[in-house]
Amino acid sequence: MHNVSAMEEKGLRLPSFNKIPGAVAIDLDGTLLNRQTQLSKRNLAAIEACVARGIPVVIATSRPARTTRRALGYSLADKCSLVIMNGALALGVPPLSGVFREPLPPDVARGTINLLMDLEPEVRLTIELDGWEFGRNWHSSPEELWQYNAATPDMVMTLEEALERNPAKIAASRMGKDVSDLADAVLQRFGGTASVLSANDMTFLNIVSARTSKSEALRILLQSCDILLEDVLAFGDDVPDLDLLEACGIPVAMANCVPEVRAVTSYTTASNDEDGVAIVLEKMLATGW
Length: 289
What we know:
Blueprint: H1 4-9, E1 23-26, H2 41-52, E2 57-60, H3 65-72, H4 74-77, E3 81-84, E4 89-91, E5 99-101, H5 106-119, E6 124-128, E7 134-136, H6 142-148, E8 156-157, H7 159-163, E9 169-173, H8 180-190, E10 194-199, E11 204-209, H9 214-222, E12 232-236, H10 242-247, E13 250-254, H11 259-264, E14 267-269, H12 276-285
Parallel strand pairs: 1-2, 1-12, 2-3, 7-8, 12-13, 13-14
Antiparallel strand pairs: 3-4, 4-5, 6-7, 6-9, 9-11, 10-11
Helix pairs in contact: 2-12, 5-8
């Protein structure tokens, strides 16, 4: 038996439950996964216990479907609904249902790529289509590009090919260097039609349509079971989680979160290396029906 009261004595603010929430929404990196990007046995058991109780579990992440499912393990991934690529795509799994996709406007996608490459010729770009297929400029030739994903070469393509297929998300990085100037440039040019979300201490950009967000994609999925966002328990740690945490009724920050997340959350749990998600879920499940 894990000692929840001992965790509370460490200064954490765990939520109290007088009923089971309608759904649980969980960010992946920095939240459910530890620093080695692994899913702990305790977190896995807690999520499986929620699924067994019929509680919808939604993984809400910046990742695409292919890496989200790999990180969760395919057995668990088949039991969780997904809000991926910062809400550009959502996939419902029973008891939820439905599919949602919001692509970038074509002129915005192409203009953003051109702008980023003009400002930083060495920028690393990934253009996501549907969570499975993607384009990248990380390689100097088509042969190298396909070798990158040799097991499933039909999933990867050039940037130009990806742009022709209405991409849902653009990701950009500078090999770990600050990208705040690139974020400012994209916002100045396309701020009305594109949403620019920074992550990993401003070393990574996620660019999606301004019409979508994690919270909006989640809201659409929850409609299939008449669940309101105010009845959702949500976990997050970084800037891309802000809209989700602000929209949900029971927002929980990880102890390792950025200050912006702590400012909008009512509760705090242990870090992603200390099974912070499981600590809250175990307390919730102990509430009973």
